Amino acid sequence: MSKIAILTGATGGLGKAFIQELLKEDIDIIWAIGRNSEKLQELSNKYLDKIFPIQCDLASEEEAKKIRNLLEEHKPDVKYLINNAGISKMDKIVNFTQEEISKTIEINCKVPAIICNYAIPYMNKGAKILNISSASSFQPNPYIALYSATKVFLRSYTRSLNYELKEKGISATAVCPGWIDTDMLKKEHNGKKVKYYGIVPTEKVARKAMKDSKRGKDMSVCSLFVKYEHLWSKLLPQKWIMHIWGKSVKKYVD
């Protein structure tokens, strides 16, 4: 029985950082899931027999069933499940299309929950689930309202899942980083560079997430800046935080 890790969003910056961490673990192969077949092939060429590329658009319910079908076919021992795929957009709520709203909720909320249910029957004691939430889940965030609301769901879902799976010896960790230096971030607005306070490299987030997962933590908070952010969200009125946040970000959406 092969010992595997399942990683969604494998071809992005954070996905690649998780691959580097997973290669250090006692697993036979990484099921790398992504939409871009060329980028998946690049990963496969680079890591050879350590990567099993799975081209899949997780926004499609039918395509997502590929994961379930492969699990039923191979019956692996799933050591790690990392739900890293996600969608983010900085804009005013009224500017989102119906398709954008549906797809964001689908990818950020529904898909991780479904894949957890696919994978858990193939997980044994010591297995680990990491769901990539966000520091934006700590409080309401104007101009990334849809994204942060989906991450509230994922953080709450993951922490509850961790409680339910304790008797099986399986841990679930909600990974809550702040700004991560990836291609998902908007780099410029009207010719001006966008500033992201407390931004961290992907490698740091992945390393901390894996470390906290091994400790059985139900939440992983990366960087001192984000830890203070978490504390502020508990101590300060949320209207204050929304005002500060909204004022700092509004110039990037007008």
Structure characterization notes:
The protein has 254 residues and is an alpha/beta fold. The chain has one domain (3-252): Rossmann fold, CATH 3.40.50.720. Helix content is 45%, strand content 16%. It has a 7-stranded parallel sheet, with helices on both faces. A two-stranded antiparallel sheet has the order 7-8. A hairpin with a 2-residue loop joins strand 7 (188-189) and strand 8 (192-193). Helix 1 crosses helix 6 (202-214), helix 3 runs parallel beside helix 4 (98-119) and helix 4 runs parallel beside helix 5 (145-165). The mean pLDDT is 91.
Layout: helices, strands, pairs:
Elements: E1 3-8, H1 13-22, E2 29-34, H2 37-47, E3 51-55, H3 61-74, E4 77-83, H4 98-119, E5 128-132, H5 145-165, E6 171-175, E7 188-189, E8 192-193, H6 202-214, E9 219-220, H7 224-235, H8 238-249
Parallel strand pairs: 1-2, 1-4, 2-3, 4-5, 5-6, 6-9
Antiparallel strand pairs: 7-8
Helix pairs in contact: 1-6, 3-4, 4-5
